[in-house]
């Protein structure tokens, strides 16, 4: 359990790290409330972006100046930012050198996966896209509306449940917001027979051991991997710094599938081209300057560990305090995917800032309603009070005859 005093000291360390990136640091006092933590982070991120704009004023859409452009440890080279932005800097995935990576940054996680899925039409005429239950709704919405060359095939708890294929290409979309059993079932599969693995890592911490497990599994079976990610939440120390996403192509040490032997070998180049044509390139100002330092990694690990712990406490409490309801379990076990529902398919938003949020959401699968609960790294006492209040509110509404599956609108509180 984390005491309130320990929480404020940890948050003070996060604020000091952000403040140290400023050329003219702000005069911050030790935070004494969650509201102060949130307010300080908004002030610091605004100051960081302002300083970047003043310092890097020659970094316009076209690089008319030979002056180098940078944001913290990230350096940028381009002639026309939308078309040829090249980024060098630390990996958001933690350990350097474990896997060779080719990363293209985008303006959001959805920009990355949308460009990738569109680009796949240039390298395969038609393909089966295998999806796990609970995959991110907007990704599936994009496939149904704009990537008609992909045939969606829902999976159960195991990849081995679907052996046949309708088309010559077979792609697995492995989403970190899927149920935990589905992910584990996939990693137990002994005959993948896949042509491509698209791995949405957004809900896993960048240094998560599960990411390495998936990569080791894919390397064992010789499957090409591209990881897509939104960096806005888990990678930003809880600060709303700016929208940023990426598509990362993994290169194995031997028989690199992106060079030889893969029908998708042209996918990296086609994805970059799609990002250019869609105008989805990243903005240099959105790269957090505090990424990559040892202090950043240590603080991020602490945040994620406490989010995981708070999530476990919520699951245990809701399971006993809300009898008859389904409390959904997700592969990541953290960060904004905690759904309370009478049905199986509640969807939840991805949130991992310094506040918690509760809102109604409508299930795209059942059209019923669920409550989604975004987990934060609040101190234990605050968190326990919050989940107790949620349960009391839910039970009170149920006793009063309110049907949570027929609520007319979406409501949220934070």
Polypeptide structure, described:
This protein folds into 3 domains: 4-55, no CATH class; 69-286, Aspartate Aminotransferase, domain 2 (3-Layer(aba) Sandwich), CATH 3.40.640.10; 294-399. Helix content is 35%, strand content 17%. It has 10 helices and 15 strands. The strands form 3 sheets. A 7-stranded mixed sheet has the order 4-10-9-8-7-5-6, with helices on one face. A 5-stranded antiparallel sheet has the order 11-12-14-13-15. A 3-stranded antiparallel sheet has the order 1-2-3, with no helix packed on it. The protein starts with a helix and ends with a strand.
Which strand order spans the largest sheet, edge to edge or round the barrel? 4-10-9-8-7-5-6
CATH architecture of the largest domain: 3-Layer(aba) Sandwich
How many individual helices? 10
Q: What's the CATH C level of the largest domain?
A: Alpha Beta
Backbone CA Rg: 22 Å
Structural class call reads: alpha/beta
pLDDT < 50 runs, ≥5 residues: 334-339, 341-349, 402-414
The CATH homologous superfamily name of the largest domain equals Type I PLP-dependent aspartate aminotransferase-like (Major domain)
Descriptors:
17% strand; 5-stranded antiparallel beta sheet; 414 residues; Aspartate Aminotransferase, domain 2; alpha/beta; 10 helices; disordered C terminus; 7-stranded mixed beta sheet
């Amino acid at each position: 359990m984390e005491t309130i005093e320990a929480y404020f000291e940890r948050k003070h360390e996060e604020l000091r790290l952000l403040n140290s990136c400023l050329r003219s640091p702000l005069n911050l006092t030790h935070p004494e409330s969650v509201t102060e933590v949130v307010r300080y982070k908004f002030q610091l991120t605004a100051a960081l972006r302002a300083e970047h704009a003043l310092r890097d004023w020659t970094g316009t859409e076209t690089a008319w100046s030979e002056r180098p452009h940078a944001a913290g440890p990230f350096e940028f080279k381009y002639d026309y930012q939308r078309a040829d932005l090249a980024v060098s800097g630390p990996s958001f995935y933690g350990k350097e050198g474990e896997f060779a990576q080719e990363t293209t940054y985008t303006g959001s996680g959805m920009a990355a996966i949308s460009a990738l899925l569109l680009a796949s039409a240039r390298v395969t005429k038609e393909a089966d896209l295998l999806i796990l239950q609970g995959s991110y709704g907007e990704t599936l919405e994009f496939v149904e509306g704009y990537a008609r060359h992909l045939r969606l095939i829902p999976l159960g708890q195991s990849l081995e449940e679907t052996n046949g294929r309708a088309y010559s290409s077979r792609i697995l979309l492995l989403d970190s917001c899927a149920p935990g059993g589905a992910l584990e079932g996939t990693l137990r599969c002994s005959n993948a027979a896949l042509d491509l693995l698209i791995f949405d890592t957004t809900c896993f911490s960048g240094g998560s051991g599960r990411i390495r497990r998936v990569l080791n599994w894919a390397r064992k079976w010789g499957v090409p991997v591209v990881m897509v990610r939104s960096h806005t939440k888990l990678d930003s120390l809880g600060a709303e710094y700016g929208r940023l996403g990426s598509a990362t192509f993994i290169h194995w040490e031997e028989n690199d599938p992106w060079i030889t032997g893969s029908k998708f070998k042209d996918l990296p180049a086609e994805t970059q081209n799609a990002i250019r044509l869609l105008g989805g390139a990243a903005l240099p100002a959105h790269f957090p300057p505090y990424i990559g330092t040892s202090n950043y990694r240590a603080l991020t690990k602490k945040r994620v560990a406490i989010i995981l712990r708070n999530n476990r406490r919520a699951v245990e409490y809701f399971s006993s305090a809300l009898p008859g309801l389904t409390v959904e379990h997700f592969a990541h076990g953290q960060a904004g995917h905690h759904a309370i529902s009478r049905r199986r398919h509640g969807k939840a938003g991805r949130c991992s800032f310094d506040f918690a949020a509760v809102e109604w959401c409508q299930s795209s699968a059942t059209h019923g309603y669920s409550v989604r609960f975004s987990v934060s790294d609040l101190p234990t006492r605050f968190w326990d009070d919050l989940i107790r209040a949620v349960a009391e509110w839910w039970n009170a509404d149920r006793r009063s005859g309110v049907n949570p599956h027929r609520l007319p609108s979406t409501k949220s509180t934070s």
